[in-house]
Amino acid sequence: MNGNRVNRWSMLWEGLRSLTGDNSYERYVKHLAAHHPAERPLSRASFYASELERRWNRDGPTRCC
């Protein structure tokens, strides 16, 4: 019974991390290993810095209206 509760919390936590993008580095590393095995992944700090740059410093409007 307690193991089932822990499993549900774990699934909920992973779902929340996925919705908020908190697991994006782990997904990036997994994708890189599967599709580009010769490339070295960025460090976690470099990855997040590049993502912030990509999201906020692009040309053109960053909003709908």
Describe the fold and architecture:
There is one protein chain. The chain has 65 residues and is mostly helical. The chain has a domain at 24-59. 68% of the residues lie in helices and 0% in strands. It is built from three helices and no strands. It is flat and about 55 Å long. The N and C termini lie far apart (50 Å). The mean pLDDT is 86.
SSE order and pairing:
Blueprint: H1 2-20, H2 24-35, H3 44-56
Key structural traits:
3 helices, mainly alpha, 65 residues
The percent of residues in helical segments reads 55-70%
Q: SS-based structural class?
A: mainly alpha
* H/E element order: HHH
**Main sheet overview:** none
Number of strands: 0
The coarse overall form would be flat
Overall pLDDT score:
86
How would you sum up this structure in a few lines?
With 65 residues, this protein is mainly α. Helices cover 68% and strands 0% of the residues. It has a domain at 24-59.
